[in-house]
TrEMBL record, chain A:
Keyword field contains Iron: yes
Gene3D superfamilies: Cytochrome c oxidase-like, subunit I domain
Keywords linked to the UniProt accession: Copper, Electron transport, Heme, Iron, Membrane, Metal-binding, Respiratory chain, Transmembrane, Transmembrane helix, Transport
Source organism of the structure: Brevibacillus porteri
Similarity remark: Belongs to the heme-copper respiratory oxidase family.
Name of protein: Cytochrome ubiquinol oxidase subunit I
Family annotation (Pfam families): COX1
Residue spans crossing the bilayer: 20-41, 62-82, 102-127, 139-162, 189-215, 227-255, 317-334, 346-368, 380-404, 416-440, 452-473, 493-515, 592-610, 616-634
TrEMBL record, chain B:
Name the UniProt record assigns to this protein: Quinol oxidase subunit 2
Family matches, as PROSITE patterns: COX2_CUA, COX2_TM, PROKAR_LIPOPROTEIN
NCBIfam families, per database record: CyoA (TIGR01433), QOXA (TIGR01432)
Transmembrane regions: 45-72, 93-115
Protein family (similarity comment): Belongs to the cytochrome c oxidase subunit 2 family.
């Protein structure tokens, strides 16, 4: 008995690596710490009522952001481990297997469990506030999206200590990801972690499209909508078309692995090239999905801190929609070297280059928003200004890569690695940072410390250039990606060392940001105005943080930048603060079903990974049961009384007569 | 505050220039130091496309700096402030126009080169091309010379100034066959025979590698591509023929097992081995490699 338990445990848990034992211990310790703190302060009920069952878009957004910061930490540690291994030739720090797992989890976590939730967090907190809405269109679905993402992410991260991590790269190309070459559970963790969170992403896409199209404040026509909401719309349209492809592709891969199918295997008529096409049909739109909202964020920030209207609003909208459509027509540029022939390569090279046009237009429009403005450099603006040269260089190398015959020399080299990190870190991540600094006071009710924020900005940027500029050079020196080791004879040592130094600086920059948050929390100065940046859009017209019903009275929108215009009118005495008639507000009720259902999904995933049907089948029944229970639950909403609205507004410092 | 920011900005730029001056050993940039016609054209294209994009990028970077500097908010500023200026058809036509023109130019060049540099297109030469069949294995490269009847592992030699017709396949996960100084890469895939023409104009040893991840010891898949004179090449072939053992079918199966390998030479290889590898999974259920030797199947180009 004891022997079989021991045998099971040695296969079930990942063993033999001090790094992982360290992780085991720290995971157990942090769980004990969290549980005991919650128990000691009797906070379990509070946690359940206020957070775990909430359908409030702002709280869901905060949970997304928290989760993504945690994942940024995990993915960042992965990155530092890789850079440590590559700092010198013939380094013995990580073995080949371990390195392969780390670059795989780094990629998956950074894109799917860091960039996506950070973006969804900002969608959630900001979009309804910008639109003058009380919540998203489907609050219950929204909570379910979050918890599905969360259980998918946890499932994926579990592979670090249980079963073993996937090691086939962030897109898991077959045949290497097939059973024949990759028999362990790692690849199944990959499939189910992404599948479960992917359903959540798809639902978020649908939710925000409906929200933007259907629940805008009266008077806000689409062409008066703030640019961030436009960017969310264009990104969500891409989500809705792209994510089903991912789900189907991974389902087929799962059928291959679990049921002995032959979609992508070498034998039995399978075709790995089909997978590569399918995964990039999702994968390429995916990168535009995450970068479009960043464009929206820049547009908001540039206008606010230049004290000027956004230049070329219509152009901007048009450009984003073009980008979101074109993003579906370029996927084959990821494998020009697969031998598709000159016709195919020429077509995809040209479509890829076309994307540079609307993207370039956006940059010009930001520049001319600043032109004849009054620019101040608070942290959100600092990030935005820093991003422009960064993104322009990243875009330029993107065009270089799209030159198909030249790509035969860049493909899978560090030139490519440098390019996509430049657009994703300097475009997406820095963009979301800018958004976080900008909306932080709206989300939490206080500003982050400017001085420490500046330090973080400079460290991130210096670290970034030091880390990735040498990688362009390494690409031209013929260094290919995913090498866990290289010899002294290659001449790659100096650039790799510089790159590692840059990575460490970025690591320090992350810590500085955490310190920034801690410091600002400790010396908190409450924002009582609700509009600390003197900004332009509706979210700044309500107190910070926003009351749970967002708007005590529905705003009437008459123009673009409605809040800015209203402030001007009040200043000029053209409009008096209106006397308001409060009415009871219709709100959704909290529900425990999303978190419970996602836990059941977790069991389904975990059961299928280890082929434990005794766990997967009940898990699936649980999922169905949750759906049934929710379908017959008619007690899903309530009205907030006028007294409670008055009380809440008064607490936020706004007297309503 | 303002000055300290400028100082930081400048020191940062300076650091960069320094960095590239000190560590940029020019002969390390092998992609920019090609030794064959394909690599040469690809280098030209790299440089041409870089210059074309710089036509837009440099002015944008300068413009960014100038605008940010000139329109920053400060006491006694003379620059104009127009808070409601938000549209100018003329300007917008300009910056939809400029990228369209540049992209059209790059597009035309790209399409032309895409056809002229199509990897399976034979190179123009007075000399007859030499064929080398390349098989990607876990984690080594097998080279077969059907005309010479020899085979090698992790080392490939060919005469200079002669087009080399590489036929590339895989008996392992997908890889990519790349000799940067001769020209771009091509995927090595099971069940496919890809054709890549390359040529070395100069004698020399060039680094070759696998560019697509294939598992644990993927990082050990470097090989040497050695371009020599025709005489040296013939001599080398003879030497391999006379001194090295032959590769048997069992020996090949041994090679396909996962593991790294040193350079190896074989004086012979089973007839039709490459074709069998390519058709291993073909629909005709040719289990040549798993059961017995069958007549070589025709390889589609």
């Amino acid at each position: 008995m004891w022997e079989s338990v021991k045998e099971f445990a040695s296969e079930f848990f990942v063993t033999g690596d001090p790094l992982i034992y360290g992780a085991d211990v720290s995971i157990v310790l942090s769980i004990i710490a969290i549980v005991s703190v919650l128990t000691y302060f009797k906070k379990w009920g509070w946690l359940w009522r206020e957070w775990l069952t909430t359908v409030d878009h702002k709280k869901i957004g905060i949970m997304y952001i928290l989760a993504s910061v945690l994942m940024l930490f995990r993915g960042g540690v992965d990155a530092l481990l890789m850079r440590a291994q590559l700092a010198m030739p013939d380094m013995q720090f990580l073995s080949g297997d371990h390195y392969n797992q780390i670059f795989t989890t780094h990629g998956v976590i950074m894109i799917l469990f860091m960039a996506m939730p950070l973006m969804f967090g900002l969608f959630n907190v900001i979009v309804p506030l910008q639109l003058g809405a009380r919540d998203v269109a489907f609050p219950f679905l929204n909570a379910l999206s979050f918890w599905l993402f969360f259980s998918g992410a946890m499932l994926f991260n579990l592979s670090f200590v249980i079963g073993g991590s996937p090691d086939a790269g962030w897109l898991a190309y077959p045949p290497y990801s097939e059973l024949a070459f990759n028999p362990g559970p790692g690849q199944d963790f990959y499939i189910w972690g992404i599948q479960i969170s992917g359903i959540g992403s798809l639902m978020t896409g649908i939710n925000f499209i409906v929200t933007i199209l259907k629940v805008r404040a009266p008077g806000m026509t689409l062409m008066k909508m703030p640019m961030f909401s436009w960017s969310v719309l264009s990104s969500c349209i891409a989500i809705v078309f792209a994510f089903p492809i991912l789900t189907v592709t991974l389902a087929l891969l799962f059928i291959d692995r679990y049921l002995g199918g032959h979609f992508f295997t070498l034998d039995g008529g399978g075709n790995p090239m089909m997978y590569i096409n399918l995964i990039w049909m999702w994968g390429h739109p995916e990168v535009y999905i995450i970068v479009l909202p960043a464009f929206g964020i820049f547009s908001e920030i540039v206008a606010t801190f230049s004290r000027k209207k956004l230049f070329g609003y219509k152009s901007m909208v048009f450009a984003m929609i073009i980008i979101s459509v074109l993003s579906f027509l370029v996927w084959a540029h990821h494998f020009f070297t697969m031998g598709s022939g000159a016709d195919v390569n020429a077509f995809f090279a040209v479509t890829t280059m076309l994307i540079a046009i609307p993207t370039g237009v956006k940059v010009f429009n930001w520049l001319f928003t600043m032109f004849r403005g009054k620019i101040t450099f608070e942290t959100p603006m600092l990030w935005t200004v820093g991003i422009i040269p960064n993104f322009v260089i990243g875009g330029m190398t993107g065009v270089l890569l799209s030159v198909a015959p030249a790509d035969f020399q860049y493909h899978n080299s560090y030139f490519l690695v440098a390019h996509f990190h430049q657009v994703i870190i300097a475009g997406v991540v820095f963009g979301f940072f800018a958004g976080l600094y900008y909306w932080w006071p709206k989300i939490f009710g206080f500003k982050l410390n400017e001085r420490i924020g500046r330090w973080a900005f400079w460290l991130w940027n210096i670290g970034f250039y030091l880390c990735f500029m040498p990688q362009y050079a390494l690409g031209l020196m013929g260094m290919t990606r995913r090498l866990y080791s290289y010899g002294w004879d290659k001449g790659w040592f100096e650039m790799n060392l510089v790159s590692t130094i840059g990575a460490v600086i970025m690591g320090v920059a992350f810590l500085v940001q955490i310190w920034d948050i801690a410091h600002s929390l400790k010396n908190m100065k409450r924002d009582t105005t609700g509009d600390p940046w003197n900004a332009r859009t509706l979210e700044w017209s309500i107190p910070s943080p926003a009351p749970f019903y967002n708007f005590a009275v529905m705003p009437q929108v008459t123009s673009q930048d409605d809040w800015h215009e209203r402030k001007l009118r009040i200043e000029q005495g053209l409009e008096k603060p209106a006397k308001v008639e409060l009415e009871p507000i219709h709100m959704p009720k909290n529900s425990g079903i999303p978190i419970v259902m996602s836990m059941f999904w977790f069991f389904v995933g975990f059961g299928l990974i280890f082929d434990w049907l005794w766990m997967a089948v009940p898990g699936f029944i649980g999922v169905l049961a949750c759906m049934v229970v929710h379908s017959f639950n008619y007690d899903t909403d309530y009205y907030v009384t006028v007294e409670e609205i008055k009380r809440t507004e008064a607490e936020a410092g706004r007297v309503i007569t | 505050m303002k000055t300290s920011k400028t100082v930081r900005c400048m020191s940062f730029l300076f650091m960069f220039i320094l960095l590239f001056l000190t560590t940029g050993c020019a002969d390390n940039y092998i992609v920019l130091d090609p030794k064959g016609p394909i690599g040469e054209q690809q280098k030209d294209l790299v440089i041409l496309s870089t210059l074309l994009t710089l036509i837009v990028i440099v002015p944008v970077l300068i413009l960014t700096f100038v605008i940010v500097w000139r329109y920053r908010d400060r006491e006694g500023r003379k620059a104009k402030y127009t808070p409601n200026w938000e549209h100018s058809t003329k300007l917008e036509i300009i910056w939809w126009g400029i990228p369209i023109i540049i992209i059209t130019l790059i597009g035309i060049v790209t399409v032309q080169y895409t056809y002229s540099l199509e990897p399976s297109k034979p190179l123009e030469s007075e000399k007859k091309p030499i064929t080398i069949q390349v098989t990607n294995l876990d984690w080594k490269w097998l080279f077969q010379y059907p005309e010479q009847g020899i085979a090698t592992v992790n080392y490939v030699q060919f005469p200079e100034d002669t087009p080399v017709r590489f036929e590339v396949t895989s008996d392992a996960p997908m890889n990519s066959f790349w000799i940067p100084q001769l020209g771009g890469q091509i995927y090595a895939m099971s069940g496919m025979s890809m054709t890549l023409y390359l040529q070395a104009d100069e004698q020399g040893e060039y680094m070759g590698s696998g560019a697509n991840f294939t598992g644990k010891e993927f990082a050990r898949m470097f090989f040497t591509a050695n371009a020599t004179s025709q005489e040296d090449f013939d001599q080398w072939v003879n030497q391999v023929k006379n001194t090295s053992p032959g590769l048997t079918l069992d020996g090949y199966k041994e090679l396909t097992k996962q593991g790294t390998s040193d350079v190896r030479y074989f004086s012979a290889f089973p007839e039709g081995l490459y074709e069998m590898t390519v058709t291993k999974y073909a629909a005709s259920h040719n289990h040549g490699l798993s059961t017995r030797v069958q007549p070589p199947a025709r390889v589609k180009e």
